[in-house]
Amino acid sequence: MRKLLRQTPAGLNTLSARTRFWELRSICGNMGKTENLNKGTGIKMLPEKFTERMRNMLGAEYEAFMESFSEEKYQALRMNPQKADSDFVNKKIFHLEQVDWEPNGYRYEAQDQPGKHPYHEAGRYYIQEPSAMAPVHYLDVQPGDKVLDLCAAPGGKSTQIAAAMSGEGILVSNEINAARAKILSLNVERMGVRNAMVTNETPEKLSGFFEAWFDRILVDAPCSGEGMFRKNEEACLEWSPENVMMCAERQKSILDCAAGMLAPGGRMVYSTCTFAPEEDEGSISSFLHRHTDFHILKVDSFQGMSVGHPEWISDPAPGIENTLRLWPYLLKGEGHFLAVLERDGELRQRGSCSYCPNGLQKGIREKDCKPWLSFRSTFLQNFPAGTLFLYGEQLYLAPAGMPSTDHLKVLRPGLHLGTLKKDRFEPSHALALTLKPEDVRYSMDLASGSPEIKAFLNGQTLQGTENAGWNLITVDGYSIGWGKCAGKIMKNHYPKGLRISF
User: Which of 88, 217, 270, 480 has the fewest CB atoms within 10 Å around its CB?
Assistant: First the structure.
């Protein structure tokens, strides 16, 4: 799935008509009264009970908070270290401003439109809101770690974690919603991640498989989404005090499951994109009262970040003032809350194996996949070691020490190498996106502004070369897909479901 399109009833094709539709929805819905803010581009409607609560919480800062809704949202991208370097910034392709808490993160201007550039399809960067980059910074992931991203879709934080791992260790990226899990898997593929297992499971199911197994866990919890009101008008429509309490209750069970999967001495970061104390300071305090072997770490903050507020909840746990809040009126980002937690005990050697009910993933012998061996020797020059295993005809490479996929709903068990036929091997798009020109025998480079790259992304054939067979297609040197040269024609193997027109 390339894009998620907002669905609006037929006939609402004008701005005024759409605005009127949302007004009627608010009147007929269950939110009660709303407060209107003139943004110049439409009407932003905030639930009255929400604004009343925020006024009581913020006091003198309330007006500054409300003024932030009249400002344009901040947009950012995060460079993929595998495919981008300082040259990306120096070329000034876009108007970039560094994000303080993410060395690979840059705000861009609306005129840049990086989502419409071939570099996006090549996985050279991931478009991600600036505040959303903060939780992974505090997770402190290192190469070789075993990491769980428990609520991972659409994949921004998972791919940020993968970048920090540098291909070493094991990343389990989970999403309970099946449709969102597919989007997660596609983004993991686009960013060229080799060491990730994408699962579609409940936290309860996972907790039965990974007792005290992970060095790092990120819980970017489902929430009421108040921090997204500036950029997502539908979030306002879905808000209610009842929904806030429902989210807080759901967060309890998610955190309880995560707690059992973290190794002693390990670190867990809890984050939300809401301002609601019940889901922020309240959820963490409740968790710490239930799990006395966890404590809040005091961490350094960046300019514009503020601290948690014990006074906003009843029965606050020790250290709540050391949680962090990101407010849109104090920094260039949307609303976020995060808490950095540590489990008591001493962390084992990072990445070391521990018990899994299913054991580790068992592989097949290389001699049992001769078409792959033939492809590798003919067209590849560098390729990492790992465990080869089959899902039907699909050949995968599992990172060393990856848990077994038995009895788990797995969408992406490691790196998808391709399809293993009886007498041939067809490489996957995922494999192409992990490779560099020096990793293959044959490649064809296309300039990012050329008609040829536009034709390739649209699924058209290209003029062939003298290099018969599989060629890695690159854009300005960065892999973007496969072509297969036969005679004077380079046949296009860019996946049909991903083809676009620029």
Answer: 88
Closest of 280, 220, 224, 231 to residue 247, by C-alpha: 224
Query: Which two tokens mark 236?
Result: 């306002």
CB 119 within 8 A of CB 113: no
Tokens of 116: 């419409």
- Please state, in angstroms and rounded to a whole number, the distance separating the CA atoms of residues 397 and 127: 27
Residue 206: strand, helix, or coil: helix
What does pTM read for this prediction? Answer: 0.90
List Cα–Cα distances, 270 to 71, 128, 251, 256, 258, in angstroms.
28, 18, 10, 12, 10
Single-letter residue type at 272:
T
Residue 204, token pair as written in the block: 């309860």
**Secondary structure class of 260 (helix, strand, coil):** helix
CA distances (Å), 45 to each of 2, 38, 148, 463, in order?
Answer: 29, 9, 37, 54
Dihedral class, residue 134 (left if φ above 0, else alpha if ψ from -120 to 50, else beta): alpha
Q: How far is CA 215 from the centre of its chain?
A: 19
Please report the DSSP string for 118-151 in residue order.
HHHHTTSEEE--GGGGHHHHHH---TT-EEEETT
Please report where in the chains the tokens 């419409």 appear, as a residue: 116
Q: For tokens 């790259």, what's the residue?
A: 453
Which string of b and e fits 444-472 if b means at least 16 CB within 10 Å? bbbebeeebbbbbbeeeebebeebeebbb
Beta-bridged to residue 148, according to DSSP, are 172, 217
What whole-number distance in Å separates Cα of residue 393 and Cα of residue 32? Answer: 55
Dump pLDDT digits (tens) for 87-137.
778 788 999 999 999 999 999 998 999 999 999 999 999 999 999 999 999
**What are the angstrom distances between the C-alpha of 97 and each of 24, 71, 107, 136, 138?**
39, 18, 5, 19, 21
Nearest C-alpha neighbor of 330 from the set 34, 36, 58: 58
Q: Hey, which residues are catalytic here? A: 273
Which residue type sits at 158? S
3-state secondary structure of 340: strand
Query: Model confidence over 136-173: pLDDT tens digits?
Result: 999 999 999 999 999 999 999 999 999 999 999 999 99
Residues making up the chain, counted from first to last: 502
User: Angle CA(303)–CA(79)–CA(93) in degrees, nearest 5?
Assistant: 100
Q: What angle do CA 486, 487, 493 make, to 5 degrees?
A: 30
* Domains, the chain, ordered by start: 129-343 (3.40.50.150), 358-434 (3.10.450), 435-502 (2.30.130.60)
Helix axes 241-261, 281-290, angle to 10 degrees: 40
- Start-end of H helices in 224-296: 233-238, 241-261, 281-290
Q: Which two tokens stand for residue 34?
A: 């709303």
Mean pLDDT, all residues of the chain: 89
Cβ neighbours around 493 below 10 Å, total: 20
